[in-house]
Every structure is written in structure tokens, then in C-alpha cells.
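Internal tracking record. Fields below are filled automatically when a chain is submitted to the structure queue. Please do not edit lines marked as system-generated. If the sequence contains nonstandard residues, flag them in the REMARKS field before resubmitting.
Queue: standard
Priority: normal
Entity type: single polypeptide chain
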Amino acid sequence: MEDIQGKTFDVVIVGSGPAGLTAAIYAARADLNPIVFEGPEPGGQLTQTTEVDNFPGYPEGVMGPKMMEDFRQQATRFGADCRYGYVTNIEFDERPYKLTVDEETEIFAKAIIIATGASAKWLDLPSEQRLRGKGVSACATCDGAFFRDQHVVIVGGGDTAMEEALFLTKFASKVSVIHRRDELRASKAMQKRAFKNDKIEFIWDSELQEVLGDQVVQGVKIKNNKTGEISTLEDVTGVFVAIGHKPNTDLFKNVLTMDDVGYIKTKGESTETDLPGIFASGDAMDPIYRQAVTAAGTGCRAALDAERFLSDMEESEEAIAQQHWK
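SYSTEM-GENERATED OUTPUT FOLLOWS
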């Protein structure tokens, strides 16, 4: 692999999920010779997903890892340099920006596209991790259709949990909401909708203790926080964890404007951030939709914004040079 120490790139893309690789496709086609650092989870969250049925262009569905490999191959076909590497530091005080990769390789970027994504918060149960993608999910929109006429549980009590519970009622025969308190944190309007739905039942003051099953989910164990009693739901085939997401934006903390959770805020309809030449895309800046197709869309926008930025910068430099020689 080519040594890149000390090199300056037009576009550096940090992250390799749908947003990062779509940005790479567009930037490469614009002859910007982008380099993509895939980060600690090459391909992003979709590599932890089994079948993806809701991405356009795959009429028969596709396995998450296969889809991300398709994205990667398309990006490299146009000349994007996709390589394993973790951007560990960025110096924001002067341009071109200096990035450190894997704590040792230093490169420079005229433009940076942030595509670091967000990570679902999990309960950190060994059984939960073992059965991820085998009945345990953090995305009802992605996986709900696989549980038609089945009993599923959802863990959480906020707006996201209620939205996911309501979505699951379109497919599941029954949705049991496990919540550790005796009242929901969700908005009153969302609570009202959930309480009205006959398919949703609530298991209050309780926590998920274990997901049962070897190869697929075959039930759950639940602990009542008040009585300590352990009960088992043996007919459950799906577990959805909806306790929030954490955007992977620590690298940009105290530099770029973020919301209280850590999602990067962009300017208007663009992907521009507070700093010139730095653009944010995907789940790092989207607390609402968090879908592969919407992430890909923002990756496209970020690449187009970066291309426009670099073009304007080049024209400005040419104008300054011409003025100098007059």
C-alpha cells in the first residue's frame, strides 16, 4: 500500500459506512482523489446487520456486509483510496488541516468529510451481543418486517422506543415494552399513541436480564426491579434495544457545534460545519432518520459541497496569484 506520510489530499473522508462510501464515489468521480479511512468498524453499522430489504436497487434484499462491500468496490472503481485506518487527531487551527492516522501517520487535507456515524447503545449483556443480527436488533425500521405475526420485545421508554414499538405493530402480533421505571420518558403525544394500540403491552419496573436461544432468539428473562422476581417470556423471537444512539464525534468535540447528545450541527440545508472545508454527513449529523439510504444521501451532498468548496478555493487562489503578478 502506498506510503502517504506527509501527503496532501483534496478530500479526506473519515468513516466508511453508507455516507462515507457514497461521498467517496462522488468525490472520486469528480477527480478529487479522495482517501477514505475506514475506522474501527469498516462498513459501519450495516456490517452488523443481516438482511437489508429497504435499500433501493436490491429487489431481493442483500446482506449488510455484502452491500457495504458493493459500496466499497464502486468507490475504488472510480479511484477512491479506501484503507483501514483510524483518524486519531486533527489539528483545526490552520489549513490544510493536519490529520494523524493510527497515532503515527501525518497527512494533510484541503477538505474533510466526516462520516463517523453513530453507535447504538446496548445493554452489554453477553446474550444480547451473541445474538445481535440473529433476532436482536437496534433498528425496528431495518428489521421489523422479519418478525411478521411474532411476539417481540422492545427495551426503552423514550420517544424512539415508542416510535419503534408503534412501527413494529405493523408486523408483529404482539409488542412488549420493557421499561425500568413505572412511567415513560416519551412525550405525552407519543405515550398516548402507544397506550391506545392494542398490540402493545407494558412491563413496568423491569429490566431485560438475558436473551434466550443459541442460534436465534427463543425467549427472554426479565427481572422486576421492585420484587426481584425473574420471569420468562418463552414465545419471544425478536428483541429491539431502543435506549438511544451515541454519535461517534468525540474527535470534533469543543471544535464543531453539536447538540446536547453530540450530533454535529450543519448550516442550513448544506453539510457545512463551523469550519471551512469540513463537512458532516450520515449518522454523525442526523439524529432523526438514521437510515442507510438517508446517510448515503448526505454523503452525496457532502461530496458535492466539498467539490464546490475546493473549486471556489482554487479560483480564489488563482485570483490572488494574478493580482500578485500585476
